[in-house]
Amino acid sequence: MPIQQKLTGLIFSILFFIFLIELVRRKKIKEEYALLWFIINFIFIAILIDYKILEFVTSLFGMGLTSSALFFLGISFLLAYCIFITIKISTISRQSSNLAQEVALLRFKLEKLEKESDD
Amino acid sequence: MKEILAIIPVFNESRHIRNVLKDAVKYCNVCDLLVINDGSNDNTLSIVQDLNIDAISLPFNTGYGNALQTGFKYALRHGYRYLIHFDGDGQHELSCLPQFIEALFAGEADVVIGSRFLEREGDYRYSISIIRKAVIYLLRGAIKLIAGIRITDPTSGFIGYNRKALEFMNSDYYPPDYPDADVIIMLSKEKMSIKEIPVVMYNLNNSGTIHTGIKPLYYMYKMFLSVFLSIFRLKKKTL
Question: How large is the ipTM?
Answer without folding.
Answer: 0.83
